[in-house]
Amino acid sequence: MDVSHLLDNLNDNQRQAVTAPAAHRLVLAGAGSGKTSVLTRRIGWLIQVEQASVHSILAVTFTNKAAAEMRQRIEPMLGYPIGAMWVGTFHGIAHRLLRMHWEEAGLPRNFQILDSDDQKRLVRRVIQSLELDEKRWPPKLAQWYINGHKEEGRRSHHVAPPQDPQNQGLLQIYKQYEETVERLGVVDFAELLLRAHELVRDNPELQQHYQRRFQHILVDEFQDTNSLQYAWIRVLAGDRSKVFVVGDDDQSIYGWRGAKIENIQNFNRDFDGAETIRLEQNYRSTGNILNAANAVISRNSGRLGKELWTDSGDGEAIDLYAAWNEQDEAQFVVDRIKAWVETGGRRDEVAILYRSNAQSRVFEERLIAAAVPYRVYGGHRFFERQEIKDALAYLRLIENDQDDTAFERVVNLPARGIGNSSLEKLRAAGRAHSCSLWRAVAVCAENNLLAARANTALAAFVGLIASLRDACHGLPLHEQVEHVIEKSGLLTHYQNEKGDKAEARVENLKELVSAARNFDPDEDVVAERPEGMTPLAEFLSHAALEAGEQQGGQWEDCVQMMTLHSAKGLEFPLVFLVGLEEGLFPHQNSMQDAGGLEEERRLAYVGMTRSMQKLVLSHAESRRLYGKESPGIPSRFIDEVPAELMQEIRPRAQVSQPLYRPSQARGRSLEDNTAFGGIALGKMVSHAKFGDGIVMALEGSGPNARVQVNFNDVGNKWLVMQYANLTEL
């Protein structure tokens, strides 16, 4: 049989991995090294050369898309369908096992699967049945707690009795939830894998059957496995199966959702006789990009170790842009994108990568203003995000309490005990009296149409909106937004949730304050607006117009915007890695321990290796984010890139600012401007009213010259130089 097609166009290390004798193998595959091709050809080699049965192979990956791609590659290679082969995601394989062995697993034959929303609703019912306060034990928090324990393989009776009341309540919810799902005959996603693991682990006959059957177990993206997935692979393999895993410890970036980098690090120890094969030749990026990524990731300890290289040449230097603020950064990126297109490039060849979802807003505004189509990959545009729409609904009610859509969105958010039944009666009263829901509250109270508890809750909500309106009267727009987000309970509501989405939602709410602070009606809303329109009404119109803009579809020629976590597995000719500042990237939450900082560095490595031809890094000297303006300290990751691989791009001519690397002395300026009386960037100055501070930016010339000073006591202030009377310290 001619099997040359299995080895065509493979390098020596790839061939070694594909043709290796049956044994435990760890293929340490660097970014862009062709791991998918190696994995699929390995399966073809086992079947066509080693004469393995398709029934004896179990191939596991993390997404349905990856599993489908694997099948699509294998079938043409073999020349016949592989329906009998077990190829799928962890959850898909677990589901298949449980359907086949539902009785041994202790499940009803027709058990149903709860998606995330269904699970949250069931958790809420459990909390209500226990008569616990949802404000103290939010359903999302309890859901996170339950799934977290399941993914570690722990049932409620495995959890040690906690000492604090918060965790005591969560454990009580977990126990009641287990009883409820058992009675209903349903399973959630975390339960699928836990139940499948227990099925094989605790049933000797089934364990032996599957260990005999699956002689070859292949796992993709092994660095992303959690504790339970690793344990399940080990029990399925037993002493018979040969486990072939492909992964990259340098791309382990999902620790926040349970992935354990220790799994790939301990593979050779846990699987006797395992050998490591390294795939280090990169087919994606230029030499300069790879050398920069190698230099950054080399700072991490405990790595299995590899060095990416390419034979395609060094390519262009990496650009480093030091913006004076986030607006300047966004404008620079948009200008570079337009230049890319003007020289023959496509917009869909460009990606803007950022650490936090909240950073997208400024780029979205600039792209819209420049009529550049874009797509937010893997998420919603800023003003379309759930938490932003929640906050805007409160603001809309303050501006117009007859807004029924806004009323319905937040009347029970956070939960106030106003259920669907009460809302339906409220709607009926509104229809009967041809009035808004706001006015229908009084109608229901006057006519005793609702239970006393619902009347009280609705009256409290109406009172809250009225008090927010009164408190916001006369405040600057951004202070109105900040006040409403805090006093409505929205901020606390999302802070009480857990997980990456909750953290992002809190950040987005705070970023809405920045959006309000930077809002310029003359720039952002059509000039012909009704006379007497309040700043809040104009801001709400601006938000609605931006949300209504159509972002590009998946296959349209539009700029791709995404978080660094969403970018894994993708590649683009031109990549902008923005917001490289301490506290933003690396994220402030990661800087408390070495493990968190090392995962941030792996994230930087992933971001850099998305770029095929051109990589642009940027940071801002001053950034207004999450409602606060603060000086930006360039990220340590910039300093970890060898200087000879980068070229600094000068900012726009009208702005003077320092160009420096983080390890160099602070405050090196361009040329002193006579309009600033010798005051230079980085200098310590004193002001009669604001006290001492440091010069962060110089702008303009002549009588319009301005200076930005970060004062010790009052934060950042822009001052007109001719009136500032600053004294250099």
**What percentage of residues falls in helices of 4 or more residues?**
40-55%
Task: State the CATH class of the largest domain.
Answer: Alpha Beta
Secondary-structure class? alpha/beta
Q: What fraction of the residues are assigned to beta strands by DSSP? A: 5-15%
Mean pLDDT: 86
The CATH topology of the largest domain is: Rossmann fold
Shape: globular
- The CATH superfamily of the largest domain is known as P-loop containing nucleotide triphosphate hydrolases
Q: Rg to the nearest angstrom?
A: 29 Å
Low-confidence stretches: 523-530, 652-674
Sheet with most strands: strand arrangement: 11-12-10-13-14-9-17
Report how far the terminal alpha carbons are from each other: 83 Å
Structural description of this entry:
There is one protein chain. The chain is α/β, with parallel strands linked by helices and 729 residues long. It folds into five domains: 4-101 and 193-279, P-loop containing nucleotide triphosphate hydrolases (Rossmann fold), CATH 3.40.50; 114-182, Arc Repressor Mutant, subunit A; 289-380 and 552-652, P-loop containing nucleotide triphosphate hydrolases (Rossmann fold); 383-539, PCRA, domain 4 (Orthogonal Bundle), CATH 1.10.486.10; 674-728, Thrombin, subunit H (Beta Barrel), CATH 2.40.10. It is built from 29 helices and 23 strands. It has a seven-stranded parallel beta sheet with strand order 11-12-10-13-14-9-17. A six-stranded parallel beta sheet has the order 3-2-6-7-1-8. Strands 18, 19, 20, 21, 22 and 23 form a six-stranded antiparallel beta sheet that branches. It is globular and about 85 Å long. The relative contact order is 0.09. Mean pLDDT is 86; it is low at 523-530 and 652-674.
